[in-house]
Write a structure and sequence with these properties.
The structure is a homodimer. The first copy, chain A, is built from 8 helices and 14 strands. Chain A has helices at residues 58-68, 101-110, 119-126, 138-150, 154-158, 181-195, 212-220, 234-243; strands at 16-23, 28-34, 37-43, 46-53, 78-84, 89-94, 136-137, 162-168, 171-178, 203-206, 225-228, 246-252, 255-260, 265-266. Chain A is globular and about 55 Å long.
Chain lengths: 287, 287
């Protein structure tokens, strides 16, 4: 990837830990594993949530989380963000006064914690979104997959991690990783907010499954195309169709499957010219 | 798998949906995807949480969730469970009066929703647990992997799903699946509670990553050995070592890596005799 874009930093010693164990031969080995640490997000004076994260891009994560939960809007003015890495706390302060006491108490009862997101909050904006008719060329789809898989990442260095990549055409612009795929996506949302990047001509690539939660977040972010190596859930497909989001999954080698917004797919290359994947860069199964 | 054990029912039409799309050749195809629907769990008169689930084994899921959150104990007497599939509600009634108002309000502030679990609740029991020194033979490890991968499952039929399998020796006893790996594990916990199955000589196999949450749940359930095809997080390893839980990950073909409780691993077979995996049964990457 080019130097001016955001990409993973697998060499950052704070993001992985070296641990000792034994392998299938009974030999002692040491290996890298990604860290996972709590980060508590405050919006002004209110403690909102504690998430488990690898710990990079805390500001992007906090901003993106609040944006995707409709606690911030694109028009909000951020006065300051204070991050304390020792305490694991980040405080985002806005010009507008915020109070989500009611929303927070409601979440206890209605949230699918198992999904990691409060659906009620996210659904608020879902109905009104109109996604642009940006095309995705199949040559970009193949090229993006190859570039992303070949980028040095925490996934390749330590495994057990999800990635989300903001792309334009066949160019990855920002590649974020985290232990939870929702965190990686939230970091992308925070990055777009900070840099005032418009979603209309973008493609979001994720290593995770195309569940309802991922679809809702992508629509919330205004991105018209969501691509994954992994599979789909029925509700994810249904919500994507409702929002006219292009949903492309099970991408691997020359194969892919589009289950929503298929009118955006522009077949500009013969799939028979696409080589199979080398085993060593294979990520999660594409089923 | 034998007939008397619990295994996935990929033929159950309520668990998958057939959807149409287009593939890499531009051809129209239809494919199966797993469903994902909300289920609201009540404990007596209190609404506790809404989880996203495929919808099978609702009683096991509810009981296991409450057990793993320390809202039920092994000694609790269940008076009734009422499940309404149309409303997506299950109510568990206990002889003991329960009131988790305080716990629920606390969770808003401290829970890692991103992890799907309230750590505070689960950590309550963590300190006191003493796991038995049950051995795991490496021949069982290989045999379990082969049996589980070859079992007809929603994963093989529709993808995008996690599995958890309760095993004894080289026998899978109960194989549960769900869109979230924590749900699949909770179903195992509920199944063990209903059938009064003791954890001491069991092995828990999961398709998901070995994160702090998975380690905490396994320890909570009293199972001494946790195995996965996927990778580790640093905090997962640290908690497993603290609890003396055997943690074996990145299992694929002849390979595996044990990063905690390695004294339980009994090398009884030459790994060179283990064949590589056939591509068609490969699941998630083992990194």
């Amino acid at each position: 990837m080019a130097k001016d874009i955001i990409h993973p930093a697998p060499e950052d010693p704070t993001l992985t830990e070296r641990v000792q164990g034994i392998d299938h031969n009974g030999s002692s080995v040491d290996t890298l594993v990604p860290v996972e640490r709590p980060l508590t997000l405050y919006l002004n004076s209110q403690e909102i949530v504690t998430v488990m994260t690898i710990g990079d891009f805390p500001e992007e994560l906090a901003l993106g989380f609040f944006l995707n939960q409709n606690m911030l809007t694109d028009n909000d003015i951020i006065i300051s963000t204070d991050y304390d890495s020792d305490l694991g706390v980040i405080v985002v302060r806005t010009k507008r006064e915020t109070d989500y006491e009611e929303k927070l108490s409601k979440r206890v009862k209605t949230s699918g914690c198992a999904q990691g997101t409060s659906f009620g909050d996210i659904m608020e904006n879902f109905e009104g979104v109109k996604l642009p008719e940006t095309k995705i060329k199949t040559s970009w789809l193949y090229s993006l997959g190859q570039k992303i898989n070949a980028t040095p990442s925490l996934y390749l260095a330590a495994g057990a991690i999800h990635g989300s990549v903001l792309c334009k055409g066949n160019h990855p612009l920002a590649y974020m990783e985290d232990v939870g795929r929702h965190n990686a996506v939230d970091k992308i949302a925070g990055h777009m907010f900070k840099r005032q990047i418009l979603p209309d001509d973008k493609i979001l690539y994720t290593t995770g499954r195309l569940t309802s939660e991922m679809v809702l977040k992508t629509v919330q972010m205004g991105i018209p195309i969501l691509v994954s190596r992994s599979g789909f859930t029925a509700w994810g497909v249904q919500l994507a169709r409702q929002a006219n989001l292009t949903l492309i999954g099970r991408t691997k080698g020359k194969r892919f499957l589009a289950l929503s917004g298929t009118q955006r797919v522009d077949y500009d290359i013969d799939p028979q010219t696409i080589p199979g994947e080398r085993t060593e860069i294979q990520r999660k199964a594409s089923r």
